[in-house]
Protein 1
Amino acid sequence: MSRKGKLDIVLENVVIENVAAEGKAIAHVRLDSDEPDGEGRVLFVEFAVPGDVVDVRVTRKKKSFLEGRIIRIKKPSKDRLEPFCSHFGICGGCRWQPLPYEIQLRAKQRQVYDQLTRIGHLQVPQFEPIIGSKKTIGYRNKLEYSASNKRWILDSENPEALSEKEMQGLGFHVGKFFDKVLDIDHCYLQEEPSNELRLFIKDYAIRNDLTFYDIRRNCGLLRNMFVRTACDGQAMLTICFGEDSPAIKPMLDAIRQRFPDLTSLYYVINTKGNDSISDQECILHSGAPALYERMEGLRFRIGPKSFYQTNTAQALQLYAKARDFAGLDGSQTVYDLYTGTGTIAQFVSGAAKKVVGIEYVPEAIEDARANAAANGITNCEFFAGDMKDVLTDGFIRTHGRPDVMIVDPPRAGMHPDVVATILRALPSRIVYVSCNPASQARDISLMADKYRITAVQPVDMFPHTQHVENICKLELC
């Protein structure tokens, strides 16, 4: 170890021990000031693999832990893989590329266990083995790309030698830098035409002197874009502009001419301070108003604002397991909270007496109703609004007390008012689907006096990332 200043600390020959939270790896190290007893301080390191021997520069120093980045790999782990993407290490996604997929799955299963037991202090049964994804690249059906007039500058580049046009980029935000976008050559997360669309749009904008978005000043024409794809090759592009302009129509016409097979082409004029389009009008330039995806004979309509699980193949596994955990026999009233486009609601409808779905986004509820009608499902009702405002005691009196509740909230989990209403309704069984086991553990702990966990099923929706989906079955004590 050598020191040159307050945080100029280099730790040599650090042995990486395991995979830790937030996609980092973990080791234990000693500083000169540490007491001689004990195993030393915890060190979190990005992009490391268990078994690596590395030199690490400390980037953050706290009383109980350190954070650092690798400056040299002295001896690579026998398990270390060569990253397949040229943007690895700068782009914020796919951080686990050097980890074999089997190690990724074990780490995710352990993450779920740790968060339920350590955060929620919950008693858990033996887990079902995590369900891995058959596809580990090209598995996403939706991607968002952001434009910037001040893209991320690579170490190999001289910023003073770059022109204004060379400073423009279209890609992904970089780590913790909200105002920096990494220009992407090729992304492996989504099948074509995702990359082809992005590269064409960037080239067209540069050739035609269109301005790229300046996030700090909230100005610029080309702002961001969403690409959706379906398993049968359908594709939807929603391109967002930061201001209205006569240049929009020629650009959309050029996109349609270059990609005549594009199923849907939408555009949005978004002048507000954030990129969300949930409160914006999506205007159809050309093509069909929606994509359609099929699962188990059911057809689902997907519009530009629809929530739909981003890994279609794994969504089928997820929904099938949720239905299994619900344990329906045709006599139950089921509430599907955060229903999105009604996918889970319709998956379970054949085994339920009645299904009530609630979702915040009105357009998603429109899709859910259209999906149910198209699928000939008559025992589902869908309602739009903020969950804590819609799911009230009065609503339950009107629509019937639920025998089973299926909840699939956003990453932040459920509002305390929603949890309180669930506890008053007291369904005999709750199936809690979560993309964030930490908030899931917190919510379940609030119900621990009334419910116990009887089954746990992790599902990997996002290979090469630390994210994991998890299903808990809760039953009344």
Protein 2
Amino acid sequence: MTRILLSGCCGKMGRNVISIVNERKDCEIVAGIDIVDDSSIGFPIFQSYDEVEIKADVIIDFSNPSLLPDMLSFAEKNNTAVVLATTGLNEEQIKSVENVSEKVPVFFSYNMSIGVSLLCEISKTVAKVLGNGFDVEIIEAHHNKKIDAPSGTAIMLGNAVKEELPDHYFEYDRFSKRQKREANEIGIHSIRGGTIVGEHQVVFAGNDEILTLSHSARSRAIFATGAVNAAVFIAEKENGMFNMSDLING
């Protein structure tokens, strides 16, 4: 039985994780971290990692990047695995995650959906086959409450393409330019509106033909399911960085 410490347990994603775990028999949530105290949630809630006295095998983090240092410190001190599902991390924060992964197992992905992970692999294959003969554009859409743009998933898709086209670079803003598109650009475009859960398209545009790969998230449950699967997967691993490709490939 995998014992989970859920950070951000009273938020929308946290409650989705709770719902998923309640339907499984291979894991349980033993405690949560949140500034909100909901006595009906079914397990102890602590406002900070300093207060936690309950042993857990893995942390699932759906909170805020500002809590990252405390979470990583707790994980290292207590030898607790980490599933990092918080978005909007900067390069310095990602580096701190990599440093801690030398001592405890860390599962880090910009998107916890298995479908998105497969989309990355397919995009990489298409980029390899089409080479430099097609222009690449990435379009992402999310709800109007999302803070970061572009989405981490858009960056993940772009990085997948760049593995096969290493001379390409990201272009985020063409509005300030008056010039034609460069052949080695990967355009990234963000849409924010309504309650869109998550839409991603990778467009390969060539001479007289267009190939579009897409993924549509219809609910947050898919991300919660991926995070719980990752928690069970990583709980028994040694130190190191893991991602959705590791989970898919066993």
Protein 3
Amino acid sequence: MKKVEKRAIMCLLLACVLLVGVGVFSYRYFAYGDDWASYEGNRDVYTNGDLTKGALYDTNGVLLMRNTENGMIFNEDSTVRRALMHITGDKDNNISTGANRAFTDEFIGYDFINGVYSLNNAGEDVTLTLDSQVCAAAYEAFDGRRGTVGVYNYETGEIICMVSSPTYDPEDPPEISSDDTSGVYINRFTSGTFVPGSIFKLVTAAASIETLSDAYTWEINCTGRVDYGHGDDVTDLSAHGTVDLERALEVSCNCYFGQLAEKLGGTVLEEYTGKAGLTESIDVNGIKTKPGTFDYPDGGVNLAWTGIGQYHDMVNPCSMMVYVGAIANGGEAVMPTIIKPGSFVESQVSKLPVVGTQTKQMIEASTADSLKSMMAGNVVNNYGSDMFPGLSICAKSGTAEVGGDRRPNAWFVGFLDDTENPYAFVVLVENGGYGSSTAGSVANRVLQAVVNR
């Protein structure tokens, strides 16, 4: 009887171990099954280390790239290939944001029931929100200069343009030496950070509006220079005279925003930089952006330059695009996406507020309205509406000093105040000079392609 009892206990223990094992396996299968399936040793998915499944299309159904057993096939247009190289990737898998690295799970068509099995064994097609013709227009507008352009729908989050330069033809890649400093493999839109210059004044202005009782009435007399002693000063290209917040943003007065930063203090600037999402990484369908970095001195000239967008300020272009999108959208930022729903069920799920479009309140609605009005005034009274024919545009330029003998980086950020074309944008031309003239002209060419497509 004792033997039977012992055997029963042993069987019970073995059954418990089996149940625990099945539970652990089931958890790992559901949690990591896609990683197992996409492992490069899986011969159903890879041949000689190259992904053989899946195709990539733009929002209009234009083929951008297809994986085959004989390698990657790209779009026939060399301009489109160059414009979208940082999202299609290249044959040597050098681009971290390339589709075969970022969208592996989508391409192999993995699911819990069928694994990677499909009737034709070709994998799945992925359709992007990008418009290849708009991206081609952005690439041509750069004319070989370094930088990036991003455009997205600030109501739906769909990115329609994402171009990084320098680039190359993935069908005919160049020989790139190990000591190359061009950053050609880097997707500047998602993976880079840059000195923002005066576009950061939008954050300083928002902090002022929401924390200072005299935000709209506080004035200074700009003489073109504020001396902080010991050879430290904040300068402008010219004296602006008496300026308030609206006028200071319009003429991008460094003296005003430097003293405003001191008035706000480093703690408030840090809070509003965080609220603006500039220190966070954004997940764009698995492509994670590089977070910005900032220092917040206690006071003095360094705090002044921080509020102006200099000192140690570094921002990511995608994050800045989302912030100006929030200004356009009543203070609520819609997080960007680059992959369109692939089925009816996915399209319905994407509309759910919890599962689908993700949003973040960055500033108050009244603050957004004020900044929108000021940014519209920037265009009318400073940059010139004739630079953007037919466009209802609200914008802020930036001329970011980068040190040494290098020309400043040129920025232009903003949005279209247009119900039929609700698009926010960011343009960065590295060492391009003045923001409004250099980056503004690129923005116009891209936005004209957007509204006339």
